[in-house]
Amino acid sequence: MADSDRQIFRLRRGRAFRRAARQRRLDLYLVTRPEDVGYLTGFTGDDSHVVFDRSWACLVTDGRYAEQAAAECPDIDIHVRAGDMSAAIADALKGRRKRRLGVQADHLTLKAAKAIAKALKGTELIPLADVTGALRTIKDDSELRSIRTAVSVAERAFRELIAGGAKALVGRAERDVAAELDYRMRRLGASGPAFETVVAAGPNSSKPHYRPGGVRICRNEAVLLDWGAVVDGYCSDLTRVVFAGRMPPKLIEAYEVVARAQAGGIAAIRPGVACKTVDAAARRVIEAAGLGQQFLHGLGHGIGRVIHEAPALGPRGEARLRKGMVLTVEPGVYLPGVGGIRIEDDVLVTSTGARRLSSLPGDLKAMALG
Amino acid sequence: MADSDRQIFRLRRGRAFRRAARQRRLDLYLVTRPEDVGYLTGFTGDDSHVVFDRSWACLVTDGRYAEQAAAECPDIDIHVRAGDMSAAIADALKGRRKRRLGVQADHLTLKAAKAIAKALKGTELIPLADVTGALRTIKDDSELRSIRTAVSVAERAFRELIAGGAKALVGRAERDVAAELDYRMRRLGASGPAFETVVAAGPNSSKPHYRPGGVRICRNEAVLLDWGAVVDGYCSDLTRVVFAGRMPPKLIEAYEVVARAQAGGIAAIRPGVACKTVDAAARRVIEAAGLGQQFLHGLGHGIGRVIHEAPALGPRGEARLRKGMVLTVEPGVYLPGVGGIRIEDDVLVTSTGARRLSSLPGDLKAMALG
């Protein structure tokens, strides 16, 4: 980070904000969305906002976090509020120029905006489009380390689970398998699952957003698992389809198609390519197999502090890939009444292409649990 | 529910909305907060809004949920959106009178409000204070059943955990114990923990919002556990302090004080009493023991679809209790460097007093794990 950056915001990763602030002639910028506050300051607690101008930054938090905030954010001011957040922001800004205050339009509520405007009389609130979303698409080394660990924890938990062979699945309720996978991720160091783990057996696997229930898993059916870990505040996201006995023949065909589609999608990834081009590279394979109507969603999405981040890797994605983005690549084919196949891995966009961050095997043989 | 209610909103629990709509001369009301959408319609999916006038209600959802919404909300219209939520709302409202549209000021973002105002030209958005919050404080029979089950699942998981005796704690990392408790709740039917489970050993237990880490639990120290389950979308919330060997003598004293404070608080609960009076009944006991400065938070809070609901049972709580409210009662004493004691149970406000919904023993002897 350039020295000027450090002096200007005393925040990590303040560059894009500085640009937005200059363009909109802001005196101050208020960041309220929790993942952005953490991203900019390193603070890991809740219920806190950060406000900054060109030479100064301040985290407004409460008594529970006073000690933690001082330890995690040594370079910025900490204002510990006693009452309302809006009053505390006004206190923290006393004596500062504050004619124009940028706010996060896609996070700040009408009520909070009104309270802040009232507490800061004479200040105009400027609702701004997402700034951190684009900034956060490019992961730095420390973020990449966290994502790699989140991937590794999710993979190890999966390997532990399926080491049990057929009895890891057959006769068990979907939700018990999901609970076990989550428990194993926690034991391996995850703070929790990155989203509600999906375990969908047989025909349930054809519903892309199925929630695991009390259904018992049988032999000779596909079991779709979609899971991820949160480690150091960063997410991983993986999908595999496993089975005990034999897979229904239609799904064996679909599996091969989806695996080839995933390979095609990953091969299309490199800086400068539009998201929709990557989606098309995978979709073409599925369409050629006559299954285009059964691929119900986009090819993938960014991951990071939240599980769905920019960019969206879909048929309408105009954004272009850049080095340092981390994406899921997850084509799927869903056959109602039979089952679904989705194979999902996490990849890093490098200067020349894509590097897989996940290392689970993807071939059908490895998915047979006896 | 009166027949007129059913005709007017075709929503469950629409009464308070009807009153608000009449007072503010609204043509329509838009509810965006997920827990309120679920509360009013019975829908259990995500990313959906409900909009209604006096004779009609409509859930605006997306393709993933079309089938589920039709099954869960048979009495109201379902509008499946293809694109933007704001455009879909405009579509759903075609041909309806829509001069004044009430919105949830404490949930709707500036960006969403702007998009809706743009899609609905000529409609004025009226930001309204929380309506469902007050409505949701009074639980009906079906909600009470869910909360009772959530309490029972949390209790059974705890009993299973401590059935292991001292070895359930000693030598294990706090976060492993937390993960086990969560796993047991899931196996017993919880969809997940109601919040991040706290397991805080020794001096860590004096920090009310401590997050469990890699610290290994020792003999002869207090271990504070604060946990709850979500069942059918409703939360429970319990706290106990357990130990292997002996508790530090100062904490034994504190334990007796906190137990008496909790009993005093629960004895003060009945309809018509102000929240602050209940808080004072418990706080008085702790102050009389010279530990008033060590009771760092309010006595309790409502629970329901989210873990912290109205009313807040604190020193400044002017709201009065009503029959059907469900509250936590959780006095605590925190001795920095030594440890903390908190005892938390969930109670229902009845017509004459309070009924405990939780049944774990609270006496110190029962907390000794060998």
Task: Record the SSE blueprint.
Two copies of one chain form a homodimer.
Chain A: H1 3-9, H2 15-23, E1 28-31, H3 34-41, E2 49-53, E3 56-62, H4 66-72, E4 77-81, H5 85-92, E5 100-104, H6 110-119, E6 124-128, H7 132-136, H8 141-162, H9 174-187, E7 192-193, E8 198-201, E9 223-227, E10 229-231, E11 234-235, E12 238-242, H10 249-267, H11 275-288, E13 300-302, E14 309-313, E15 326-329, E16 332-335, E17 339-342, E18 345-349, E19 354-356
Parallel strand pairs in A: 1-5, 3-4, 5-6
Antiparallel strand pairs in A: 1-2, 2-3, 7-10, 8-9, 9-12, 10-11, 13-14, 15-18, 16-17, 18-19
What does it look like?
2 copies of one chain form a homodimer. The first copy, chain A, has 370 residues and is an alpha+beta fold. Chain A has 2 domains: 3-135, Creatinase/prolidase N-terminal domain (Creatine Amidinohydrolase, Chain A, domain 1, 3-Layer(aba) Sandwich), CATH 3.40.350; 141-367, Creatine Amidinohydrolase (Alpha-Beta Complex). The first copy, chain A, has helices at residues 3-9, 15-23, 34-41, 66-72, 85-92, 110-119, 132-136, 141-162, 174-187, 249-267, 275-288, and strands spanning 28-31, 49-53, 56-62, 77-81, 100-104, 124-128, 192-193, 198-201, 223-227, 229-231, 234-235, 238-242, 300-302, 309-313, 326-329, 332-335, 339-342, 345-349, 354-356. In chain A, helix 5 packs across helix 6 (110-119) and helix 8 (141-162) crosses helix 9. The radius of gyration of chain A is 23 Å and the shape is elongated. At the A-B interface, helix 6 and helix 9 of A face helix 6 and helix 9 of B.
